[in-house]
């Protein structure tokens, strides 16, 4: 058996190794995930300090300096010992910034970093896809204009029907892709931050930290939401954000996938099979 150092001795998903762009591969990487956890812990500590908790500037400085400095070997050791990925990374982060170790994850629950990171990754993924889709629409628009007068045979039920043009066919694709772009942008803009909600969404741990001061806990939620780049957070949630968010995002992506399949297979492959066009189209 090949050694662990050989990258070809382990399974790699073609979705990442072959088809994904570098920026999308990074967006779903462990480095992005765990550095975002550290950003969330840093934002939480900053907000807690601003609202009066005993957190020093030196502690925050250590946290900020070590956001990307992740010791994955130590994290693996900690996870084997603690059997909990979040706690493993709490202690790994604490080892990198010992002054801040006592206040990392203060009042938070696993879903604070896990779910909020998932929402950040979803938002950033949409921000990667949207300009690429807009660029595709722009290029297809130019293609449609160039070939608006080029006649081709239209079909109904796979039977020859009436003449149309190549440019008009491209406009059908553009129309679908514009609908997809709208849906993706809407899904992206509708994303809400889980926020600072505590273990079961009651914010009990934060109310305890702030001696029952509801106003400060609400401010804490708003401050961290703003630091994470979201306009809104969920008003209510349980341990996790509602998974309806995931189905909504998936629906917009599935719709885009259906449109792309129609263009690449149902249209272009059909044209090629009937010798109306070739692969260079």
From TrEMBL:
SUPFAM superfamilies found in the cross-reference section: L-aspartase-like
Example of a GO cellular component annotation carried by this entry: cytosol
Keyword Lyase: yes
Domain (Fumarate lyase N-terminal): residue spans on this chain: 99-202
GO molecular function: (S)-2-(5-amino-1-(5-phospho-D-ribosyl)imidazole-4-carboxamido) succinate lyase (fumarate-forming) activity; N6-(1,2-dicarboxyethyl)AMP AMP-lyase (fumarate-forming) activity
Biological process terms in GO annotation: 'de novo' AMP biosynthetic process
Keywords carried by this UniProt record: Lyase
Acetylation recorded as keyword: no
InterPro entries per UniProt: Fumarase/histidase_N (IPR024083), Fumarate_lyase_N (IPR022761), L-Aspartase-like (IPR008948)
Descriptive protein name: Fumarate lyase N-terminal domain-containing protein
Annotated organism of origin: Ridgeia piscesae
